[in-house]
Write a structure and sequence with these properties.
Length: 207
């Protein structure tokens, strides 16, 4: 994201990192490809869309769907809109959408930044249609740090991303099930734990 995070005085842009290419970009594309494989339906929300890299992939991959992005950072929204992407400013704690609006909701690398993840998941479940899917992707910080050091990405390794909580599969499952969502899939990316860099949990709202 293009703003200072955590205690770091330096900004790191998602798009600048993505533009570097190499192994980091290939992994990012792999992560998104696996995640988008769980998406279906005619209306899709990217909750916490950041600078719109995944949002743009959603628009391209689902051309007949109505795709929307929401982000709490006005700078991110401006970047997305400047690229012609359908983003709006908003909070995952209070989305400006009616109940049961979306067939699929992506919640990618956001939950670890929240001090009230329970409230956010409840709000995402509210806007999800019966039978719709919520896909949560979250990082494993220690594994990400080690991977960045091994790839000689010391600047990124030293960056404080402002994560408030560390999550695992159990904590994410509990959050989803507390709002009546049924877990469909739970996997590590690109490998199972303890080698996973990210966790992915997909759940569905009952009909």
């Amino acid at each position: 994201m293009p703003v200072t995070a955590g205690k770091c005085e330096e900004e790191i842009s998602q798009r600048e990192q993505y533009a570097k290419g190499g192994l980091g970009r290939r992994y990012w594309d792999y992560r998104d490809d696996v995640t988008l494989g769980f998406v279906a339906g005619s209306r899709i929300l990217d909750a916490g869309c950041g600078e719109g890299i995944t949002l743009g992939k959603l628009v391209s991959r689902f051309p007949s769907a109505r795709v929307e992005g929401v982000d709490a950072d006005p700078a991110n929204v401006a970047i997305c809109r400047g690229l012609g992407l359908p983003a709006r400013h908003g909070s995952v704690y209070q989305l400006d959408f009616p109940d049961a609006s979306f067939d699929a909701v992506l919640f990618m690398e956001v939950i670890e930044h929240l001090d009230r993840p329970e409230a956010a998941v409840a709000e995402l479940a509210r806007v999800l249609k019966p039978g719709g899917r919520l896909i949560v992707v979250f990082p494993f910080d220690r594994a990400m740090f080690a991977a960045r050091v091994l790839c000689l990405r010391f600047r990124e390794a030293a960056f404080d991303p402002g994560h408030v909580r560390r999550h695992g599969f159990r904590s994410i499952r509990r959050l989803l099930e507390a709002d009546g969502l049924a877990v469909l899939a739970s996997r590590g990316l690109p490998l199972p734990r303890p080698l996973a860099l990210h966790g992915l949990v997909a759940a569905t709202r009952g009909t």
